[in-house]
Amino acid sequence: MNIAINKIQTFRDDFTYSNSPEAIARFPFPFTDDEYKYTVNMEPHQPKDGENSVYARFFDIDEHYLSEMKERSLVLAEMPKRCLVMPHMELACWDMIEKIMTSLAAQYPQHFSLTQDGDNWCWENKLLNIKDSFVFGDSSTLPKPPMEYIGRQIQGDFALLDQRDDDLFLDAGIVTCPADWSLMFDAGMSFSEWHGPVPMAPSQNIFERALKYLVAIPVGRPVRRLNWTLTVNARMDTASETYHKWGHERSEVNAENVAEKVHLRVELQVIDRMPRSNALMFSIRTYLISLADISTNPQWAQRMHRVIKTLPPALIEYKGFARYHQHVVDYLAQFDESAAGD
Ligand code: HEM
């Protein structure tokens, strides 16, 4: 498959980000029902599902590659601590390097290549004009620490979870496009601690059941799930620490601009056991689409209308769109014949 990579677009200031018709067609629309509730929604991540689907490869590279890599470099320049690695996670970082380099080279040979001669590796990334020879496992032979080096070359955020005492600990990550959370704040926390702010899920034991499942994931059996929220403007970096830059935008949505300003933000999360360190690698690949682009698919718009209209108030509040919830419902109502009287 030949992906056409866009020239660099922005996720801040003038927000030039846009989706091509092809990107809209392959958008991972998350709603399978007219009502949404939290569930333990995990399934095997066996890349297949069609040549062009976001699930077709282990890691999805798309037309936004250069734009997202540029955005990541801007965030890291401002806040280097968006990449945090505790010393005991060094081996897990090399696991991550291996998984990403071998997958990308095998699945996108036109863009990436890897040659391995024992521990002497040579990596080429033609999209970013990078070519480096290094000794696998020896950080001093890479131009940057391993997680940052590879994290600057792949779309999506990454966390590496150390597994101890049947629990998971957020002990490393490169996180430049989180949906309103903070790596610095969550670093070192356990599974139930970092999920502490999530409403409603604890009463259904979602996290208890999910954790049991996760700690038993063996090597070679990755799983995936989708998560979603809404974001104002095509802003990738909605981290808690930059709230002052984007929080006020929530009150700027009105009936005239809702279709262009409000974006559905979907995370394709993949969880994979690392063979050397026994860590879990958690990748969060974020996709953004405006309501205007969603409404080019009337079935999506109708379903989303029903989901957003019936969403429990605690989730509207937690996901941060209480202030413009009604504008979204009103806009999407035109695509739903059963919407009279919204
Ligand atoms: C093991 C890797 C995982 C990591 C690192 C992770 C991390 C996070 C973080 C940082 C948040 C934001 C919490 C906040 O508001 O501060 C979150 C939210 C959430 N997580 Fe996880 N999570 C993981 C796995 C899972 C799994 C397996 C499930 C469910 C089966 C799950 C379900 C949720 C839900 C429902 C939310 C609320 C999201 C929303 O409504 O927007 N997570 N997660």
Number of strands: 10
Sheet of most strands:
7 strands, antiparallel
Helix content: 25-40%
Estimate what percentage of residues fall within beta strands. 15-25%
Bound molecules: protoporphyrin IX containing FE
Query: N-to-C SSE series?
Result: HEHEHEEEHEEHHHEHHEEHHHH
Estimated structural class? alpha+beta
Number of structural units classed as domains: 1
* Structural Rg: 20 Å
Strand order of the largest sheet: 1-8-9-10-6-7-2
How would you portray this structure in words?
The chain is of the alpha+beta class. The protein has one domain. The protein has 13 helices and ten strands. Strands 1-8-9-10-6-7-2 form a seven-stranded antiparallel beta sheet. The chain has a three-stranded antiparallel beta sheet with strand order 3-4-5, with helices on one face. Strand 9 (262-273) and strand 10 form a beta hairpin. Helix 11 packs antiparallel against helix 13 (325-333). The longest helix is centred in the N-terminal third of the chain and has 18 residues, at 90-107. The protein is globular and about 65 Å long. The chain starts with 20 loop residues before the first helix and ends in a 9-residue tail after the last helix. The model has no long low-confidence stretch (mean pLDDT 96). The structure holds protoporphyrin IX containing FE. Protoporphyrin IX containing FE binds next to strand 6, strand 7, helix 7, strand 8 and strand 10.
Key phrases:
binds protoporphyrin IX containing FE, 342 residues, alpha+beta, three-stranded antiparallel sheet, globular
